[in-house]
C-alpha cells in the first residue's frame, strides 16, 4: 500500500512538473511573439540574456532565504555547459534567420533522434521496439503539423546542425550534471544562470545588430513594451526552472518527445490569440497523430524493458556532502 501511495505521489509530481513546463513555455512564446511582432523588440539573444539575469536574481534570493544549499560544480563542467547552452540559443536564432520555416522545423524534429543517439552511446540506453515506433509516430505527427515549404542552403544547414547538436548536448548535460553531482534544479540553475546571463548580455547586442541591423540601445522603450519585457523575463524564470526539473526527473529524450505537446499548444494558442493562421485539416490530422504517439510513448517507455540502461547508473560525486539524487529530486518535487 505504501509503495502504491509513493508511486502515485511520484506520478502526480511528474505530471505537475510537465504542466509547469508546458504552461510557462507556451506562455513565454505567446508573450515573446507579441513583444517582437507587435512592439518590434527583435533582439532575441539580448532578451534571453535578460531572462537569465532574472533567473540569477531568483536563485540569489532563494539562496539568501536558505532554500538553496551550497553545492559544488567544477569550472570545467560549468564551462562546457555554458558553451553548449549558448551555442544552442545562438544557433537556433541563426538557423531561423537563414533557413525556411519548414527546414527549421525539420531541424527541431531531428533533436529527438540525436538525443536518442547520445543516450545510447553515452548512457548505454536501450529502447524497445514500441518505444522506437512511438517516437516515430510523434515525429510524423509534429512534422505534418509544422513542416510546410522546405528549402536549404549551405550556411543554413551548418547553422541548423550546430543548433541541433548543441541543444541536444545541453539537455543531456542537464541530466548528466544533476546525476553526477547530486544537484537539484535550483542548485544547477544557481551555477549556470549567472554565467549564461553574463555571456549572453556580452555578445547579445552585437549578435542582434548583425541579425537585424538594429541597435538594442536605439529601441523605443515604451511603457507597454517594457511591461512585456518584464513579463517575458518573469515567465522565463519558470521556464528555465521547469526545464531543469523535467530533464532531471526524466531524460532529454522524454523531454523532447512530450515537449512537442508545446508545439501543438502554440499552434492552437496562435490561432486563438492572433488568428493569422487557421487550423486546417492537415494541422488537425498532424495534431491527432502526434498526441497518439505521445500517449503510446508514455505507455511504451514505462513498461519493463521499454527504456532502460544496459549498465550500472552513473556514480555521483560528493554524494555524502550534498545528499543523494533522490534527495535532490524530492526538493524539486516540492516546487
What would your notes on this structure say?
The chain is an all-alpha fold and 335 residues long. It has a domain at 16-123 and 151-251. Helix content is 78%, strand content 2%. The chain is built from 13 helices and 2 strands. It has a two-stranded antiparallel sheet. Helix 4 runs antiparallel to helix 6 and helix 5 (111-122) packs antiparallel against helix 10 (252-273). Mean pLDDT is 81; it is low at 318-335. It is a multi-pass membrane protein. The chain crosses the membrane at residues 12-31, 43-66, 78-96, 133-150, 156-174, 186-207, 219-241, 253-275, 281-300.
The rough form would be described as globular
Proportion in helices:
over 70%
Biggest sheet strand order reads 1-2
Q: Helical stretch count? A: 13
Region (Disordered): 302-335
GO cellular component, one term: membrane
Subcellular location: Membrane
Protein name: Sugar phosphate transporter domain-containing protein
What are the defining features of this structure?
335 residues; mainly alpha; TPT_transporter; Sugar_P_trans_dom; Sugar phosphate transporter domain-containing protein
What is this structure, in a nutshell?
By secondary structure, this protein is mainly α. It has helices at residues 2-38, 44-65, 75-98, 101-109, 111-122, 129-146, 154-181, 185-212, 223-249, 252-273, 281-302, 319-322, 325-333; strands at 125-127, 307-309. It is a multi-pass membrane protein.
